[in-house]
Amino acid sequence: MKITILLFCFILPLALADFKVGFYDSSCPKAESIVKQVVQNRFKRDKSITAALLRMHFHDCAIRGCDASILINSTSTNTAEKDSGTNVDVRGYDLIDEAKQTLESACPSTVSCADIITLATRDAVGLSGGPKYGVPTGRRDGLVSKMEEVNIPGPNSPVSVTSAFFASKGITAQEMVTLLGAHTVGVAHCGFFANRLSSSQGKPDPTMDPKLDAKLVKVCEARGDPSAPLDQKTSFVLDNEFYRQILANKGVLLIDQELALDTRTKGFVTDFATDGDKFHRSFADAMVKMGKVDVLVGNQGEIRKKCSAFNKARN
Q: CATH number of the domain at 159-285, out of 1.10.420.10, 1.10.10.410, 3.20.20.80, 1.10.540.10?
């Protein structure tokens, strides 16, 4: 089951020499262009890759910071983050591997997998009509990835619980609302919202538009676990339409709808719904901030040769 959820960790002081925009200008001048080309090629045939990369990036930063720990494969002695229930449907690993392989040919043991995730996500956001922005690089790859450390609030968590989680990571309520705007290109499987539908409750959810309820009931009647876009109008465009829809009670997920109903967050939702440019500026700022959380720099961690495995076997 898939869903784009945004999460983060604490921010630590960073040495500017080890973490800055253009970090690879001398050591690997084509690093960013190589990643961008890989993302462009994928986006041409799969516009949903933006949501996939956003989810990967956020879920990586949620646990140990932006250190590519989500990319590690499990071994016989360790079950990694990738195999937690929360991350089981994260995708886009092959894109990261493709970029890494090309970068290793051009600049061996130079560009971290953590930076590749951040750069690829930034490029996908721009291709989807979102803001274009520079991101600091110089991250190092982490040395730990454990499934038991994955603890992410679910889509049915109320605003109070979700905002408390974000606040504990140094993320403000406004930044939380901004980053959850990434749901404008996200999808969710019926298992995440079926409990809100009239087919489950026996009556319409008063916080959901009846026409949307009827539409989603039909979607979820299909076999398996079908999905629905979280933005019913511009599902592949990173714009402010998501906020307009949740103000009209057209939020698919409980957490999305509650953003427009809770007095602590409704003002931010209204602001973004009426000003798309402000949303884009705020989203770029929040993404840069998210990309800085708990990163490893300097001599910390390592530069993996292969993104799915540590350079040396670890328990």
A: 1.10.420.10
